[in-house]
């Protein structure tokens, strides 16, 4: 960076890099001492005093914000003088503050080598951040796959075993609704596994459509499903949801133009029916209530008896 001043201290020329530091101001004709404060040596406010320091190190800063500090060396050039300048702050800060690049410095300037190092470091850090982002994304995707049933898109048993203990630990009331399809084996036997898979996917879609955003649906076995109702333990509300599920699942599910007939049996356990809820016991109790529903004629629901 450099500028040229006449014998009166007026700027007659400013180098392009220095001009970038004050892009909104034409520096030609500006008095050097209006543009800069001379910090070292002190009490220099005339060109004659400045020229007396020719070849020596000067410390300056811009008089107006941002008051960037600079080092300078004055070289007389006849009646005029040339002032070479460099940043007193770390070069990377100056480059960053003023959006400078290697093109703004002479090829022989050591700053260029520093800029290349900074750019190389920045490029390496950017590449590292992109790699870390991809790795984090891959990790999240892998975890999501690990907790998702690939056929239905519902959560799987592994996810259930993670969620239930957290609800208990956080003291959140919840209900378990264990659902098992009736007559599902007949579909696989008579219409094939493709039809069976289609029925399971439709059941998953129906469950998702009849539950709230805060509820979670799981496929925990071949034709076994589980719903966790977070914050819902009211028997009337649970019975209403279960009733809608039973009614909807009794409607034929069509596969390649042919109807597939299934129904569902449901067992329900509520955390409020236990002194201290235990996920394993609640699962067993919901399962027992489910099979009571099956023994009672299928296509019905039953609550686990409290106590």
UniProtKB/TrEMBL annotation:
Residues 172-306 form the GGDEF domain. It comes from the Bacteria. Pfam families: GGDEF (PF00990). This is GGDEF domain-containing protein.
